[in-house]
Amino acid sequence: MKLVLTALFTGFMMMISAGHAETITGRAVVGEPVAAPPDAHFVALLQDTSVADAPAIELGRYETENADNPPYHFEIQYDPGTIKSNHTYTVRASLLSEEEGLLFTTDTHVPVITHGAPKDVEIIMKRVARMPDETISTVGAHGLRLPASFTGTLPCADCAGIEYHLDLWPDQIYHMRRVYLGVDDSPDDARGYGNDELGQWYADPANDKIILFGAAEMPLHWEVKGPDRLRKTDIQGNPIESELNYDLTSDGDLVQTDLQGLFLLGQMTYMADAAIFRECVTGRSYPIAQEGEYRALERAYLDDRDAPGASLTVHVEGSLLMRPAMEGPDRRSLVVDRFIQTRPGVSCEPQRTKADLTNTYWRIDKMRGESIKGLSDRREPHLVLQNESSPRFRATAGCNWMSGSYERHGNRLTFGPAAGTRMACPAPLGRIEDTLAQTLGAVREYRITGNNLTFLDGKGEVIAIFSAVYFR
């Protein structure tokens, strides 16, 4: 395919040469000493980037195989007849390797041709953050051989079994997929109900255990039984005394699982036609695939960002799946299944501390798609779920108090009938109070991502969004 595309593009450039071609010249540099690999491939592209929410249109390119060390000088021929004075044209450059993928690339617009921009430019390329090497095995925490995938089907009290796939990396990141086999009301997997998550792990220095935390509300403890074997513990981290099999095993290889149905908070950046998502819990970055609800996410980003190319924290439901890359080999990418909201002014750093569902002050940010604002002289709308022998909740829209019982099983959550005070409330608090009561009655599931709580109804639709507030 690459040879076919190159041949087509060469034919296109020959047609330009037969007419009247003009040229963009430039130099691509990097800000650090670089020894290019033997198979280095340098590419510079001329693109029409006039439409912010559409893919860039390529007008010309310069390529060189077996590129030496930078800087790289390039000339890009283009047809001046295609240029429109009110359009914006930019140049981008990348250094790739067949073996190592994308090594360096530009992350800013470099304008050329129109609006007073030059036709001779200097481009600064930046190193692309690399994923941990998935081919080099290291022996780390309590003798574990990593990176590796651990799999197995473990016992389940109310299903046919729980099928685990746990990916562990030496940089203390994990991905985990669990499928509850034989569960009838499965929206995720034909075999059963899926429950995927990602997060960080650490080794317990006092015991031969590793602890997974970050995405699940409760830390998950696993005993290290050997370089390639983990054994599940109970929720307090105590050994499970049973004849049943609670072990996950590995053959020493990492075979990454897809992750689906994740509620993710991360920082999005967008330049030309490339969108990147930096996930808050793990710090890993993923290209954003242009499918699903990508367009809704992109429009919200363009509306709420501070400046072109600036990072903006966004909240989405999505999946991490393998997708073709713009350049180089396929990459694990974020597929946005549902855009939830942008979070201007919120950084990733506080999200590494994960809030608990219970005994946390949850400020109500949005219900039924409406942003919730209280009155300045009243309590702000909020919810607290108390963790007691008989679990109770209390909530207010800023006027009356309401309270009642709730039940939680895993990510399933339901609220019982609420009782409370009955004062007359000024606008808009009375309407917010009615919406709150109706919303709590419709809740069937919840998700926590960093310091954000999301309620879902029986159809899986997001019906409320909260933020954890501490030290109030």
Automatic annotation (TrEMBL):
Residues 1-21 form the signal peptide. Residues 264-349 form the NlpE C-terminal OB domain. Keywords: Signal. Residues 355-466 form the DUF306 domain. InterPro entries: Cu-R_lipoprotein_NlpE, DUF306_Meta_HslJ, HslJ-like_sf, Lipoprotein_YbaY-like, NlpE_C, NlpE_C_sf, Pilotin. The keyword NAD does not apply. The keyword Signal applies. It holds the Pfam family NlpE_C. This is META domain-containing protein.
